[in-house]
Automatic annotation (TrEMBL):
<dbReference type="InterPro" id="IPR036714">
    <property type="entry name" value="SDH_sf"/>
</dbReference>
<dbReference type="InterPro" id="IPR005631">
    <property type="entry name" value="SDH"/>
</dbReference>
<dbReference type="GO" id="GO:0005737">
    <property type="term" value="C:cytoplasm"/>
</dbReference>
<dbReference type="GO" id="GO:0006105">
    <property type="term" value="P:succinate metabolic process"/>
</dbReference>
<dbReference type="InterPro" id="IPR050531">
    <property type="entry name" value="SdhE_FAD_assembly_factor"/>
</dbReference>
<keyword id="KW-0143">Chaperone</keyword>
<dbReference type="Pfam" id="PF03937">
    <property type="entry name" value="Sdh5"/>
</dbReference>
<comment type="similarity">
    <text>Belongs to the SdhE FAD assembly factor family.</text>
</comment>
<protein>
    <recommendedName>
        <fullName>FAD assembly factor SdhE</fullName>
    </recommendedName>
</protein>
<keyword id="KW-0963">Cytoplasm</keyword>
Amino acid sequence: MNNTPADPTVVRRLKWSCRRGLLENDLFVDRFLRRHGDSLTVGQVEGLQQLMDLADNDLLDLLLARKEPEGSLDQPVVHEVLKQMRQPG
């Protein structure tokens, strides 16, 4: 995973684009951004962007560990962000 600090402008745009249609997803995403938003790396931004490209129900299945990333999502950056997002409050 690329541990270079992410550009603050990219992070601000990403935070805005993370708004989801399902409240459950918003809770996971908001908690992740509160914990890590100020220190996101390029790798974390990449993983989060890939997760945000998913449909709401597919994202929720991953967040609730009903499914694991597969296909193009089966990458270390996605697994790392998903692990951080799943950590309880």
